[in-house]
Write a structure and sequence with these properties.
The chain is α+β, with helices and mostly antiparallel strands and about 160 residues long. It has a domain at about 90-155. Helix content is about 25%, strand content about 10%. It is built from 3 helices and 2 strands. It has helices spanning about 95-110, 120-130, 140-155, and strands spanning about 60-70, 75-85. Strands 1-2 form a two-stranded antiparallel ribbon. A hairpin with an 8-residue loop joins β1 (about 60-70) and β2. The longest helix has 17 residues, at about 140-155. It is globular and about 50 Å long. It starts with about 60 loop residues before the first strand and ends with a helix.
Length: about 160
């Protein structure tokens, strides 16, 4: 894992992706001021947490930063992208997003994650079926059939 201080150091490499490859990361964002049973962070010892007393007009919820180098390059380029909360309902997100969420939810169910809450195999199945899209290689229908089998086992 790359240390924070090494992010800007072009001599350090971590998390390489080849040209034409992609990666999907799903994060649950818990906004400041929202009580969550999932994560309790210890109070700061040497400084007081900054609490915004006025509403911000920005809908930004996070900023993603990543660096890349051309295959024959030595100097990386920084890309910074703020993410704006557009409050999109799950059924209005892209097929790929919903598909990724279904796969992640299945993993959480199989690990008996405390974070999966009321989500169950039937919910995963419905989410996956509604996000199957164009399945040229047949991987998605394999996943759907596996979830159906797991759902049958879980019911018994």
């Amino acid at each position: 894992m790359l240390q924070d201080e090494d992010f800007n150091d072009d001599r350090k490499d971590a998390g390489e992706l080849g040209s034409g490859h992609s990666v999907t990361a799903l994060y649950e964002i818990i906004p400041i001021g929202v009580e969550s049973e999932f994560s309790k962070i210890d109070d700061l010892k040497y400084q007081k947490p900054k609490v915004e007393t006025t509403s911000s007009s920005s809908r930004e919820i996070l900023t993603v930063k990543f660096r890349y180098k051309k295959p024959d390059g030595a100097i990386s380029k920084l890309i910074v992208h703020p993410l704006v909360d557009n409050s999109i309902a799950l059924n209005k997100t892209s097929e790929n997003f919903r598909w990724s969420a279904a796969v992640a939810a299945l993993g959480m169910l199989l690990r008996d994650s405390e974070y999966v809450k009321e989500f169950n195999y039937q919910d995963v199945l419905q989410l996956a079926q509604n996000a199957k899209g164009n399945d040229r290689e047949g991987y998605r229908i394999e996943f759907i059939n596996m979830v159906k089998s797991l759902n049958t086992i879980a019911i018994r």
